[in-house]
Amino acid sequence: MSGKLKLKVTFNSPVIIGFTCVCLVALILGYITNGKTNDLVFSVYKSSLLSPLTYVRFIGHVFGHADISHFMGNIMLILVVGPLLEEKYGSWNIGCIIFITAIVTGVANVLLFPHVQLLGASGVVFAFILLSSITGFKNGEIPLTFILVAVIYIGEQIYLGLFATDNVSNFTHILGGAVGSVTGYALNKKK
């Protein structure tokens, strides 16, 4: 009996793996340059609209992380939830959701919090959390899990935004969750 178990590694989630790799490179560059690459490309803040880097930062901020702890917290959730979403909705749609989340959170941060420098993938994490909870959506039905996740996560972010004094952008989490909810609704409605 030939009981050899053959295992092979598969490249199952190209967008999520690619996103993770870019975030890792940005983190390493941040350490090597003592944060200069984060300031230049991987964070968003109010700057001249005449500078081409302003537009790069509207997207690039989701790749930057302040430190390894910040990176690990976001990437672990993305690696757990992201591949399942990419399998269900396709690489193109997941890439679009990341892009939309980056633009929405980046522009909102510049307009509403012009003196705050924003970086990190937490908006994408919250988009994925809400997107995953609305995955069971059917015409005329809203999954109870979606309502619970929305109330718990968004409620927590509102509470923390009002009463916590940390450097976490709770508003970005709420916007990310909104992007995940709206795109999840739209994607599920098409089916």
Question: Could you name the key traits of this structure?
Answer:
about 190 residues, mainly alpha, Rhomboid-like fold
What's the Cα radius of gyration?
18 Å
What would you call the quaternary organization?
single chain
Shape designation: globular
SS elements, strand count: 0
The proportion of residues forming helix, as a percent range, comes to 55-70%
CATH classification class:
Mainly Alpha
Class from helix and strand fractions: mainly alpha
Mean pLDDT: 89
Order of helical and strand elements: HHHHHHHH
CATH topology: Rhomboid-like fold
Q: CATH homologous superfamily, by name? A: Rhomboid-like
Low-confidence stretches: none
Q: Based on the coordinates given, report the CATH architecture.
A: Up-down Bundle
Q: How many angstroms separate the termini? A: 46 Å
Structural domains: how many = 1
Question: Helical stretch count?
Answer: 8
Largest sheet: none
Strand content: under 5%
3D structure, described in words:
This protein has helices at 14-32, 36-40, 52-60, 68-89, 91-112, 122-133, 144-163, 170-190. The protein has 191 residues and is an all-alpha fold. The chain has one domain (14-190): Rhomboid-like fold (Up-down Bundle), CATH 1.20.1540. α3 (52-60) crosses α5 (91-112) and α6 runs antiparallel to α7. The longest helix has 22 residues, at 68-89. It starts with 13 loop residues before the first helix and ends with a helix.
What order do the helices and strands come in, and which of them pair?
Elements: H1 14-32, H2 36-40, H3 52-60, H4 68-89, H5 91-112, H6 122-133, H7 144-163, H8 170-190
